[in-house]
Amino acid sequence: MYIDPHAHMVSRTTDDYEAMAASGVVALVEPAFWVGQPRTFVGTYVDYLSSLVGWERFRAGQFGIRHYCTVGLNSKEANNEALAEGVMEWLPRFAMKEGVVAIGEIGYDEQTPLEDKYFRAQLALAVELSLPVMVHTPHRDKKRGTSRSMDVCEEMGLDPSWVVIDHNNEETVRETLDRGYYAGFSIYPSTKMGNARMVELLAQYGGERIIVDSACDWGISDCLGVAKTAHLALARGIDPEVVRQVTYANALAVYGKSGQMNEADWLDPPAVDQRTLFAGNSILRGGREPRIDAAPARRDDLIIE
Amino acid sequence: MTALSVVCRRSVKKMVATVPHEDKTAPTFRQAIHLGRVTTARYSEIQSIHEGGVPPMDTPLTLLRTWVVRQAGDQAAWFESQVDALSAIDDTQQLHRFLGLAPRRLGRADLALSLDDVVLAQAAHAGWNPRGWSLDGAARVAALIAFDAGNPERGVAFQTRFHDLVRTADARELVALYRGLALYPNPDSLDADVGEGLRSNMRAVFESIVHANPYPYAHFDTHRFNHMVLKALFVGSTLAPIVGFDERTNPELAGILLDYADERRAAGRPISPELWRGIAPFIDVLDAYPALARVLKGSPRERAAATLALRQIDSPDARRLLTSVPELADLAAVGALHWNNLHRYEAA
Ligand SMILES: [Zn+2]
After folding, report:
1. With contact defined as beta carbons under 8 Å apart, do A57 and A99 qualify?
2. Of B167, B171, B201, the CB nearest to A57
3. Ion ligand 1: residues, CB < 5 A
4. How far is the CA of A167 from the centre of ligand 1 (A)?
5. Would the CB atoms of A55 and B203 count as touching at under 8 Å?
């Protein structure tokens, strides 16, 4: 039983939902992000946020996966001031929607003054609404950008135990954990973490406040990143309790602080949950056997019915 | 005469002459209206029992408030003060906050209702059945009504407000907003957003408009009603919970349904037996006898549906076909088989 606490499902197909469910993913968190093409209208952004709390949640529910999301203005689009101002006006409304477990993913990209301005404004919103925060750390100038992100969180009065610093690597993890934050690791081919490296880190640091996610999106990425890492970790002798912490329990602990994510949502869903639009096919009810290799059979099937 | 029966007459009068026989056993909406008299009697009875405890004319708002308060536990005072404040002050942000907080503070349980409550609901608004509503959903609809209640100026702007709320609503919120459609000010003005809801791919959202909701019956034109029925069949939903279905069937719908049945049969795909309910009054006009003869040889559910449909036609052909299913015809005759319990028969 896994949680993928960072998955951009708007960019994925139903095959991926099927495969994730089959691999044992029971819940996921979809952070609001940059969709690959800049949005130039506030309305486009508003509709995107609406799809995260509506349509995408329904899509996930059809495969028996509980869908949660974070809302926020990402660092790239924070550089379009007119757009950013408009989005900031709408954010408080979306932050109160059902299943919104954090403000995120927010932080720095090029570390510009505008990025800084809207990062701070959103941290203030998180404090005001008592919501956790998911911080995207920059790809370039990563180490300093990560330290700076944490400095600003503290300046804005956030409790580090309410903040996930995501996209960590070997260079940033020590400081992130020492300062009391949750440390997210995105198992993302080529650019972020590989899962063999991840297993090394688990051997070194144990499981406390470490979170594994797939960060799967429109790029070459793997929506089974969480399950594959869990399997590899177990095969290489990592304590099963540590594996459970980093692929399930820690994400639930931090995003559960929102009051919007409870284990009962997937362990004990109503049989037919009409109002929450969830297929209610939980593992406890014997709905399915988790399988990591369960690629949809349709792929090899010549007949389309 | 109730508002509902006015609407009913308007939409049905064209076809009255062509409806050859009305099934007296099935609990149709016609009977529900008929039941309205019973309802009024029962309503007076409830009043006298409660002796002043129930106001003489409950509005949907007072009923919703009563039900939510009853179930809200230690959040009852908060809920009451919020609704009072919302109706007193024109503060849209306050409304947004309340709509967001409702499930957080009240929880998401089913609304607990007695039979009397449902009777009171029917008396307050014809066709309104709050069964299946949630506690937070009821609170949200109450807040929305209260926000505009007794303030005609705000009532005029309701369409704008509703559009704005739907635009940012989460899935559960959409269901709650649409379930209240018939109870809002200027319900006809919500036409465009109702259209969006019907086009939704989220089945629960679609069904929040279609099922147990008096809005389509009272406010849809024939074209929209027909397409709602077709979509319900397409997405594998059911027709039985559609309020006033038999009153709104029409020759055009029946023709489309018959074509649809042929198309499905040709593709070797299953057909919802409920479809025959929409065809029933026009079997003779459309000469649907050969089709129904085939359905009578199908699954138990199909045979039951064909029986019900044929019993609505008083024709020699219908009577002849019914002789092949004497048991089912008998069950239908005594009211033991009707469109609302069709699902108990095996589908395949
Ligand atoms: Zn991301």
Report:
1. yes
2. B171
3. A 33, 215
4. 9
5. no
B5-9: long-range contacts, CB 8 A cutoff, minimum separation 24:
B5/B33, B7/B217, B7/B218, B8/B33, B8/B244, B8/B247
Q: Coil, strand or helix: which one is B239?
A: coil
Distance, CA A237 to ligand 1 centroid (Å)?
29
pLDDT tens figures, A74-125:
999 999 999 999 999 999 999 999 999 999 999 999 999 999 999 999 999 9
> Domain residues of chain A, as ranges?
2-288
Q: For residue B99, which residues of chain A lie inside 8 Å, CB to CB?
A: 96
CB contact under 8 A, B171 and A276: yes
Of B60, B142, B130, B67, residue with least CA distance to B98: B142
Place of tokens 């209208």: A41
First and final CA of chain A: distance in angstroms?
A: 32
pLDDT under 70 in chain B at which residues? 1-57, 150, 155
In angstroms, what separates the C-alpha of B317 from chain A's closest C-alpha?
A: 37
Sequence-distant (≥ 6) Cβ neighbours of residue B308 within 8 angstroms: B23, B26, B276, B277, B280, B332, B337, B338, B339, B342
* Sign (positive or negative) of CA dihedral A295, A296, A297, A298: negative
- Using DSSP, state whether B241 is helix, strand or coil: coil
pTM of the entire predicted model: 0.85
Q: Report how far residue B265's alpha carbon sits from residue A106's, in angstroms, rounded to the nearest whole number.
A: 54
Nearest residue, CB atoms, A53 vs list B137, B170, B175: B170
Report the CATH number of the A2-288 domain: 3.20.20.140
